[in-house]
Amino acid sequence: MIRRLALLAAFTGVLLSCSGEQRDYLQIHKSAIVADMHSDTPLRMKRGFDIAARSNDGQMDLPRLVEGGTDLQVFACYVSTGTPKEECRPKVDELIDTLTAQIARNSDRIGICLTAAEAESLVAEGKVASFIGIENGVAIAGDLANLEHFYNRGVRYLTLTHTASSDWCISSADTAPAFGGLTDFGREVVHKMNELGMIIDISHASVEAVDEVLKLTTSPVIASHSCVHAICPHDRNLTDEQIKAVAANGGVIGINYFSGYISADYSRMMDSLFEAQEPLYDSLRELYKDNDSLWRLKKAELWDGIMAELDKIEVNVGHVVDHIDHIVRLVGADYVGLGSDFDGVFAMPKGLEDCTGVPLITKELMARGYSEDDIRKILGGNFMRVFRQVCDRRIS
After folding, report:
1. 14: helix, coil or strand?
2. Total structural domains within the chain
3. Which backbone phi and psi does 111 adopt, to 5 degrees?
4. Tens digit of pLDDT for each residue in 329-352?
5. Do 307 and 330 belong to one domain?
6. Is 298 in the same domain as 333?
7. Which of 75, 165, 253, 304 is the most exposed place for a label (fewest CB within 10 A)?
C-alpha cells in the first residue's frame, strides 16, 4: 500500500507540471490497464541483460516500463524453427528460468500472472504483471506433453509458428507450403490449448492456418503482434477478412509497432535495400570468411548504410494509430490492442523508440476523438477480456 501511494504521489506531481491536455491523456493512460501483448526481451535477459536496471540499450527494462505506464507485459520466449527437436524444450525452459529468476529478484516491482485476476491484483499493488508466452510452436517438439509442461510452468500463450513453417503449422512467409494450414497434429494442438486454458496466438500463421484455427477453436484467439494488410501489404499483416473473423471469434489483434509492418513506404524501401545489398553481402561474407572481426565490421557498415536510407522515411505514432483506426472502423473497438514487438525488431516509429513512448498512443487516440471507454479497451481492456475468458477458468 505504501508503495502504491508513493507511486500515485509521484505521478500526481508529474500531472501538476503538465498542461491541461497532457493531464487529460496522462490521467487516462495511468488509470487504464495498459497491456503489451508481445516483447522479445527474454532473449536479451538470456544474454545477461538485467531488466531491473535502466538502460540506454534495447527497448525495454523495468524502470522504463513503469515510466511508460505499462501494467501487463507479455514476455515471449522465442525458439527458432530450425532448432533440433531435442533442444527445443530445454532452450525454452532456459528462457523461462532466466525470466522467472529476474522477476523473483525484483518481486517488489514485478510478478508473474497466471490469470487476469492475478494481473489485476499485481497492478493494484503497484507492480508490473508479467505474462509468459512462447513464440513458435516448435517449442513443444511435436509432443502434446510438452505443451502441458509449459502450461504448468506458467506459460499462457503459444504463437503457433514463426517466419518459417514447422512440420505442423504453415508460416505466413512460406511461399511454397508443404501442406494446408495445419496437420492433424496441429489440430490436436488447438484442441489441447483449448482444454488447458492457453491462449492461441495466430501471429505469423498463414491465411490457411488462421482459417483452420478459427474453425476449430472453442476459445477466443489473439494475433499478439500483427498489423493491417490493407494499409501495409506485408505477409505478416491481417487481411480485412481475417480481422472480421478474429472479431467474430471474440479475439484481439495486438498492433505491432515495427516500421516495416505499419508503413507501406518503409516496407517497400526495406525490401528493395535488402535485395540490392544481398549480392554484396554474400561476396563480402565469402571474402572475409577467415577473418571474423573484419567480417563483423563490414556487416556493420552495410547495416549502417541500409538504416541511413530507411531513416529518410518518417514513421510515427500516427501510423500505428492508423492501423487501430482501420480495425475500429471495420469491426469496432473491442477487438484491437497493443503488441509492440519491443526487443524483437530493429526499427520503431518516432516517439516509440522504447516503451517510455507508449503514452503517446493514448494521446493520439484522444486527439482523434476516441472515447475514454474505447481508449481503455484498446490499451488493455480487450486483452484482459480474452485473458480472463481463456485462462481464469483453469489453474493447475
Report:
1. helix
2. 3
3. -150, 160
4. 999 999 999 999 999 999 999 999
5. no
6. no
7. 304
Both 254 and 297 in one domain: the answer is no
**Kind and range of the H or E run holding 83:** none
Domain that holds residue 14: 1-31
> Same structural domain for residues 225 and 374?
yes
Distance CA 14, CA 330 (A): 37
Which residues, in sequence order, are CB contacts of 237 under 8 Å at separation 6+?
226, 227, 228, 229, 231, 261
Per-residue model confidence as pLDDT tens digits over 250-269: 999 999 999 999 999 999 99
Which residues does the chain have with pLDDT short of 70?
1-23, 394-396
Cα 325 from Cα 281, distance rounded (Å) = 39
Residue 365, C-alpha cell as written in the block: 487516440
In this structure, are 49 and 11 located in the same domain?
Answer: no
Which of 76, 27, 139 minimizes the C-alpha distance to 340?
76
Residue 154 and residue 24: Cα distance in Å, rounded?
37
Residue 7: per-residue pLDDT: 43
Q: The domain that contains 383 carries what CATH number?
A: 3.20.20.140
Q: What cell numbers appear for 7 in the block?
A: 507511486
359 domain residue, yes or no: yes
Let me know the angle formed at the C-alpha of 196 by 195 and 202, rounded to the nearest 5 degrees.
Answer: 85
